[in-house]
Write a structure and sequence with these properties.
Length: about 140
């Protein structure tokens, strides 16, 4: 499986930076309706993924849904680094399949850990269906 062919490139992918405020993250989630978004450091290295649940836990901890109350907190403080592990762009098909069985999308990184984009479960299934149709 050629990951580069089915990958949605970084430029077309929503992501947050570790140093974005929680307010900025909440605004992006609200604007686009996402349930999870990759998080990058200042060098473009994939750090983890932030989810609606991460924001909800943060809001409950502060006991405030007022946006201004979340301006002094940062995305890096609420992400779970072990959630939604990435794959290398050179990953083998069986590893891709195993990973998308557990995640709706998979962050793709190069050998330095730099975020390249994402592959979706739908994209992988469509690719496998085309492969089966050709055999």
């Amino acid at each position: 499986m050629n990951i580069a062919k089915i990958m949605i490139p970084k430029i077309s992918t929503a992501f947050l930076l570790e140093n974005n405020t929680v307010r900025q993250g909440l605004e992006k989630f609200t604007r686009y309706g996402y349930t999870a978004v990759p998080v990058l450091d200042e060098n473009g290295i994939y750090s983890g993924t932030v989810t609606e649940g991460d924001f909800l836990r943060h809001i409950m901890k502060l006991k405030s849904a007022e946006m201004k109350d979340h301006e002094s907190y940062f995305i890096k403080d609420i992400i779970r680094k072990d959630f939604c592990p990435s794959l290398l762009i050179e990953a083998e098909q069986d590893e891709v399949i195993k990973t998308v069985m557990n995640q709706n999308f998979v962050p793709i990184v190069d050998g330095r850990g730099v975020f390249c984009g994402i592959i979706t479960r739908k994209g992988v299934i469509e690719t496998l269906a085309k492969q089966l149709g050709k055999e």
